[in-house]
Amino acid sequence: MAVIINKDTRVVVQGITGSQGQFHTGQMLAFGTQVVGGVNFDKAGQEVHGVPVYATMSEAVERGGANASIMFVPAPGAKDAAYEAIHAGIKVLVLIPEHVPTQETMEIMQYARQHGCRVVGPNTFGLISPGENAKMGIMPNHIYKPGPVGIVARSGTLSYEIAFTLSNNNLGQTTVIGMGGDRVIGTNFVDALELFNADDATEAIVMVGEIGGIQEELAAEYIKQHVRKPVVAYLAGKAAPAGKRMGHAGAIIEGNRGTYQSKVDALSAAGVKVAALPWEVAELVKESLK
Amino acid sequence: MAVIINKDTRVVVQGITGSQGQFHTGQMLAFGTQVVGGVNFDKAGQEVHGVPVYATMSEAVERGGANASIMFVPAPGAKDAAYEAIHAGIKVLVLIPEHVPTQETMEIMQYARQHGCRVVGPNTFGLISPGENAKMGIMPNHIYKPGPVGIVARSGTLSYEIAFTLSNNNLGQTTVIGMGGDRVIGTNFVDALELFNADDATEAIVMVGEIGGIQEELAAEYIKQHVRKPVVAYLAGKAAPAGKRMGHAGAIIEGNRGTYQSKVDALSAAGVKVAALPWEVAELVKESLK
Amino acid sequence: MKLYEYLAKQMLAEHGVPTGGGIVCETPEQAEAAARKIGPCAVKAQVLVGGRGKAGGIKLANTPAEAKARASEILGMNLKGYTVDKVLIDPQLTIEKEFYVSITLDGMAKLPLIMASAAGGVEIESVPHDQIVFAHVDITTGLLPFQCREIARKIGLTGDLAKQFVKVLTGMYNAFRKYDAELVEINPLALTDNGTRLVAADGRFNVEDDALFRHPEFPTVDEGTELEKKVKAIGLAFVQLDGDIAVMANGAGMAMGTLDVLSHYGGRPANFLDAGGGSGVEPTAQAFDALLATSPKAIFVNIFGGITRCDLVSEAIIQVKQSKGINVPLVVRMVGTNDVRGREMLAESGIEAYTEMGEAARAVVKAAYGKEA
Amino acid sequence: MKLYEYLAKQMLAEHGVPTGGGIVCETPEQAEAAARKIGPCAVKAQVLVGGRGKAGGIKLANTPAEAKARASEILGMNLKGYTVDKVLIDPQLTIEKEFYVSITLDGMAKLPLIMASAAGGVEIESVPHDQIVFAHVDITTGLLPFQCREIARKIGLTGDLAKQFVKVLTGMYNAFRKYDAELVEINPLALTDNGTRLVAADGRFNVEDDALFRHPEFPTVDEGTELEKKVKAIGLAFVQLDGDIAVMANGAGMAMGTLDVLSHYGGRPANFLDAGGGSGVEPTAQAFDALLATSPKAIFVNIFGGITRCDLVSEAIIQVKQSKGINVPLVVRMVGTNDVRGREMLAESGIEAYTEMGEAARAVVKAAYGKEA
Questions:
Q1: Active-site residue C185, yes or no?
Q2: By CB atoms within 10 Å of each CB, which of A265, A286, C152, D196 scores lowest?
Q3: ipTM for the assembly
Q4: pLDDT at C371 over 80
């Protein structure tokens, strides 16, 4: 069991012929993902790791039977490519690129909403369901294993660190969702919590948050009202000063919004166990599953 | 019983303070319609025939409880006013103005579709449900009476003529729907047929069509597949030459589309009785109800 | 409103569509000068009717002198009822292949419709449906490059030509939106320069009349007859027809129905006139006056008084009768709001008034042609 | 990227927002000439930090000579760390009332957000929520006049002032969309001329960095320190902090987490540096080199090898060590892809490498400060 993607997910790679697209197509195939096609208008007819390259998304859907897309198109082309995917009927769209102008992300989100397409990202490391051999992302294959923990994270490497510790403690994952580091993203903590809460195989949920925005606070609100499964969180940015953007567009403390303490307070009040250090997460999950 | 509007419909008049708006507000009230408010930003606080004038549609909805709107705003302001109505949560929107640029009508239709709002018109005489004392339109009050016939018409005066003959023959109406004479309209024959077909009180349906477009042909297709109630049609424009636009934007025979004969053939094949002259409609309805 | 080819191309060029860079001329001398700049050229009559090529409205010229000669042949010529007063001096193109592409308003889908075909150069009506690509544009979202690429591929364009096509179609759509067009058509979209370049070899651009208030930049091209222009100036919908019985009715559907009924009884309508719902006395009188001026064999007025008050229509008719006299047979059919009073007023002025439409139609046919229908 | 007030107002004026028509000047003489045109004026320092009024960056002048004097006081002055090199000579306004209006990006609603208030002239954070009107804009549909009217009414504007407000807000939104802004703010939107006219008395305009590639028209205003500029030029995310242990990690979250862990054990981070996922040897070496040049007390490298290959990070570090030497304590924590090889390489070069993050953090703190954490 898993959320969003599973063994039936038929993935197309937008921008498959670029260096990132090629590399990660290979990695996704190695993980066992059904990659049914790639898209590049000018390179249609070629193959990448044995995967056919189509000219357009509608061909990838019609001829390749794709129902999900992962995008490695550079930011300036992201809106066009996203609309193409949604227009072609794609229902799960993973936006890897960073630096997509926010107003364009907003347009993508509205178009996706109107067409019932789930968007993950942009500026995400993607998502992976280890027990389903399904991966749409850029995370390293070897750190995950099947198991009962759902992870949702704003940042990539930090979540890798935590997932790896979990796996080493024999706490495998149903699905790991990379939310993305931008201000506007398709799937946020609340969305992920809702999915994990409804997923029978998920027994505990790990949130990897960070300073900036109010997503963790809203998640706390949601957990208080709806989630009866144990939730463990780690939040990055305790040591970060206000007013400085820490890499991610969303990771900036503005006014009195988005501080480390407000997030810890909100989550703790909702019954979430907040780890002070990354490697404490595994211990807290283990305890909560007893 | 009736379709679209009934005694619970709470009407707001956009552009109530203009001469058309004032006159028809009086007529609608005289018919018994619940006119709960009007809108004019600069004349908020005034009254028209005892009906309060609000500054904005959202006020008319919040304070007046309006759920339907009839618009007497001149064409250049129609898009803004329509969006205001839909945005405020209006679910039935009757667009009286003619000469609304078609691309703007298209935008209105898309916005309405996204928000679940039924649009009637533009360039329509509106709609009326005699048995419910509900009228949103500019048709004369005295020609209608309650009864079992549903009428849907592209043009106003011709439908008045036919409704009047029906009433004089004791064939009253459930609802009369003015589709509007423009190329792009919110509620067309098929929509109206679907409504009348599902309405228990409607025993026979009268279509008043005309040359141009393919709406009658599509209606014939729909009737063949779905409608088991008797349908009688009158079509105007038998004597009109090709390539000339007969008043309505939609009433033009282009190429081999939209001719009188193709419509008669399609409707006849679907079992519709087509009257050769307007006053024959009543006779055909009477026969079909025997 | 239809725009001349040269204006259509100007709108397109403004939006990045390559059009060949022709020059519009009003005299043979201008044509000669233009040909000097352009080289071997086509001299093309600027008229708003189709089929001008077959009618002799397009001629080739290889030298400036030839261009001058051809222009003087074409300028002033009568093409299907229109006098040519402008020619476009367009470069001659070596065409490898002709494509068709257009954007129109699809009333049923309620969205703009793109049609494209690899079978260009002929009227789109004559192209089999399976050779045309149809694609609707989400009008709120707009036209995005991916959709252009999809269409390009379906009509066989790839690589750089597909990129050019994206630019052409995007430009067309932007112009379509900016100028409230009801049709933007390039036919043929010509593949030239040994298959390396797409050029709009001909262009049509129809702006919607209802949106002209937003576009004062367009010179008004009125396509109607003198009488049509006169009645339209009053603000009423009017179309001149071939017959001899003038017709006035209120409402477009009613006016059409009146023509049908009249024809049914053997009458030949001289016009379509929608005198409007609830027009005042003055415009009604003006319209009636204009009908009278065409010296028809009879006049048929058919009024269903809804918003229109019958007594006001009678007042307008009587006003014309008193000021100018009505020297042809006049039959009025009048029912609805204030109809009794209206018919009385007419009777007092010696004008026949009926209540049944069929009866009235038969009467006017008899009055016009002197025999029973 | 933040724009100076004068540029912000220029963007707004371009879109029909009345801004008072101030003139930007770089010398006292220019200010004098500008004041001659403008009359009694305010001399306003053009800096990108708030609170310039209180800091003496805005002064009134009633004559050109005064304007010159005030400008020479302000030009060259240091305002919160920034040197003033431009002043705006703005007309003095008699203000009846101050409104607030802004458009920002609402990340949660995923839509542009309009905020407006009749309590303008102060920072919006200090205005109670119930005195602010919040309204989202459907980004596909755009901002329509009706929504502006609704907002106008809620902040107490009616009649002609409401019409002016519609124009102001529409102009702001169009500029917001055209220039990919993340903030457009007018505060105060001043009611002047005896309550008859709305004028943007101050303006802020922040363009999103990620959209700057579409706007080469903007002069780049780089807000960072020299070191920040240098590291950003390599293409990496970098923020200078107050501490003395330089930090490099891969990934933004990991970099933040590293600072936290380091602080947890008593370390004082000198910077935030996201060395990226899967960067090559060369940029990593350059970034490392830049850190070294700040002479920290120690350097902490924390790598989780996912896409990043640990052996390549080791290669970069060794390259710097060999070419320039590393003269401060260096602690590396390295796990993940090719980590064994990476640690071996480091060990061969005499560099300590850990696998546990906490252990490594404690080690670097001890190395830097000479005591246990």
A1: yes
A2: D196
A3: 0.91
A4: no
